[in-house]
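ok posting inputs for the calcium ion job
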Amino acid sequence: MVNNQYLYPAGKANFRDSYDTKIADWITAWDGTAEVDFGIVGLPLSKSSISHSGASMAPKAIRELFSAYSTFVVEDKINLNSLDVQDLGDILMHPTDILGSQERIEKTLTKLYDKQRKMIPLLLGGDHSVTAPSVKAFKKLIGDEIGIIQFDAHHDIRNLEDGGPTNGTPFRTLISSKIINPKNLVQIGIRNYANAEHYSYEAESLGITVYPMQQVRTRSITDILTDALAVASKETKAVYVSVDIDVLDQAFAPGAVAIGPGGMDAWALLDALEWLGGKEIVRGLDIVCIDPTQDYRNMTSRIAVQLLLQFLRGKHRLLKATY
Ligand code: CA
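and the output
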């Protein structure tokens, strides 16, 4: 339209550099049928959180930041936009039925995976309760034993009698329903004063491999991950990575639902996701427990975006190496 060249859609960036490709230009909405290599799905459930949580807002907050970051990796001189990553959307939650919402997650992901056999899911919580139905669907996709590497301040194996399947119980659910063997579960970043004595001993007796924060601080993260992946991939067909953002120190993640001192720094976690992305057996990822309503300048959601990108950076390297 004549003289309207400066009119642009509301909400779009007010500056564009024609040489700069943003994440938002690269990751676009799925058409509902195409087979995809990497699929983002939002799981906006946080009514199942045992503490105040607006984590249901996280998928939206994270996506909004896709216009803030470039697809180019300076350190590797690679452009992630050669990867096929699509946004499959969010799973609709029931406003009052929490168990029903968790069931929707399992059913919807199972249905998706039936048609998307090679897709690597990139799941955005939600609180940590979403990991239980998500991993149930993932297990059906893989059709064999799976391992889990969990970044978390907490064991998340609380009993189910006191409150049902909350964000404190996903790994209890997965172990007691025999979806995973606790011997293939690795917990990294478990923190003092954040876990009950009972669950610390129980994690040990179940055979869960635990790297508490002091080890994470004093050993290199790749050293830990080498050991962790050996455990998670022993006699398993695939490894799923679950990142509870509360594994980070409160200084890095003000929008974590359970903030606290003494956690990981952002560099170690960013390095960890790149390392894990670079392993073929790692075939699923979720990032949970970010509350954008408590965040400061979207700091925590920004980390989530870069954790996704670091994971994909690892996958990019892996895929290029096999050409
Ligand atoms: Ca957790």
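notes: Residues 129 and 308 are 20 Å apart (CA to CA). The chain has one domain: 23-322.
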